[in-house]
Amino acid sequence: MDYKKYILESTGKAIRRHRTTMRLTLLDLEEATGISKGDLSLIERGKKNVEFTTIVRIAFSLGIQVSDLYRITFPEEKAK
Predict the structure, then answer these.
(1) CB neighbours of 59 closer than 8 A, spacing ≥ 6?
(2) S-S: 37 plus which of 17, 18, 19, 30, CB 3.0-4.6 Å?
């Protein structure tokens, strides 16, 4: 399993879930964080690895704890 890819995708999905639950657009989040909507889109799709401080800015702007973005459960791998 590619753990890095899995973590990036899981974190991105969590960001998107929180953003859409709050009925925010990428433009709204861009204005709140100062991160371009293009970069936010890449982050949400798990295509961009960012510094932890960027994740903190996103979480703060969404009004959530950073830990809310990292509730990751790894799928069980089948024995070979």
Answers:
(1) 65, 66, 68, 69
(2) 30
| 38 contact partners, CB below 8 Å, separation of at least 6 | none
Domain for residue 43, yes or no? Answer: yes
- Residue 46's CB is within 10 A of a number of other CB atoms, namely 19
- pTM, two decimals, is 0.86
pLDDT of 77: 62
List the one residue out of 45, 62, 50 whose CA is nearest residue 10: 45
Q: What pLDDT, in 10s, does the model give residues 23-79?
A: 999 999 999 999 999 999 999 999 999 999 999 999 999 999 999 998 777 677 655
> 44 is in which domain, residue-wise?
3-69
Q: CATH code at 39?
A: 1.10.260.40
Phi, psi of 7 (to 5 degrees): -65, -45
Report the pLDDT value the prediction gives residue 78, as an integer from 0 to 100: 53
